[in-house]
Structure formats: structure tokens, C-alpha cells
Amino acid sequence: MCVNFTPANPTALQRMTGNAPEQQYPPETFPGYVAPIIRADSDALRVDMAAFGLIPSWSKDRTIGRRTYNARSETVAEKPSYRTAWRQRQFCLVPMARFFEPCWETGKAVRGSIHRQDNEPFTVAAIWDSWTDRATGEIVKSFSMLTINADGHPVMGRFHRPGDERRSLVVVPPNAWHKWLGATTGTARDLLTEMPTSEFCTGPAGGEAADANSQTTLL
User: Fold this and answer.
1) What is the reported pTM?
2) Fewer CB atoms inside 10 Å of the end CB: C or N, the chain?
3) Over the stretch 91-128, which tens digit does the pLDDT of each residue have?
4) What are phi and psi of 16, to 5 degrees?
5) CB 177 within 8 A of CB 163
6) Cross-strand partners of 4
7) Helices and strands (H and E) in the chain: how many
């Protein structure tokens, strides 16, 4: 499960979508933090700020977002926290530079970075919802990133504690952005595919770009 990622910076967002948020956001995202998401705006793309960890409209407070940052694709249509956003086709994209997972190959959890080989930003599939704070009237957008099984994936299968199911985020390439954002619940599932093995690599979690000699190409 992805708990932490580096969101795409405003310059990258401007290049990707033609616009960028005015609001500043942290350079790393954890549950509860605000980060940019991409949504459909007619035929264009819009960038909104949203909290990481979906807060369903029926929730009494926002603390549920600490547990709803990832949604399993197998059960997203049934789970109370996610089913409304899924059935109403509230699809979005999360632009990021990299995300982080624990690798246990040494016997200890070592933080690893998963990113594109060219270090360009990419987007992953997510759903969003709106929640109204009853005390203040504030309307809060939030999101959860979808995950799929990754037990057989050559690199994503390396992450997480031994014995646990391996999970992976779903990378949506630029040529499928509008397909995802405008998908039906049926066609959306067709886009929930494994991360391409020829474009991504993994390395130590440490600066913006891992040392090339320490990267592992996804083969």
C-alpha cells in the first residue's frame, strides 16, 4: 500500500495540464496532507488540491482519511467509503514524481523509491469525493489511489513484508488520461493494468533522482 509519494511540482503540472494550483503544498505527501489531483473539465484538464485519504460525504469527521488513502480495485465498488465515488465515476489522476514502498529483501524494511527511468512525472489512477465540515461549512476534496495485486510483478512484487500480499498503484499514461477521467465503471476496470516494466525503475529513497548505478530497471 502506498502511504507516501512525491507530488509533481507546479512547473511539471503546468507542462502536463496547462495549469497549476496557486496553493502551495508539501514536497512529500502523507495521509491527511494536501496534494494536487487532475480532473476532467469538459475537454480540458484541471488541477485541484485535495487531501490524501478519501473522506466520504457521510463521514462525521475527516479522521477516516487516515485509513482510506488506498482503495483495493477488487472491492472499491462495494466498500462503503469508496462505492459512491466509484459508482458516480468520480475518477481523477494523481501526478507524482515517485512513490515509496518498504523493501524487506534484507530482512529489514528499507524505504525504496519507484519512479520513471527518465525521472519525468507520471500519473496514477484514483477516485475523489467531497465532504462538508458541519462545524465550519468548509468543503473538502479528498482522494484515494487505486491498487491492484502485484504478486507476480518483477519489481512491485519485491515490496512489503514477507507473507503479505503485494500491491501496486496503477500508472495511467498520457494517452489514456481522458479515457480514465471519462470512463464508465466498466471501462475503468479495463485500465487498471500493471505498471509498464520498460519505463520504470526502483532505487534508494533519497533525493529527487536516485544514482543511476543503483537503479533496477523493471524487466
Assistant:
1) 0.89
2) C
3) 999 999 999 987 777 778 778 899 999 999 999 999 99
4) -75, -40
5) no
6) 100
7) 4, 11
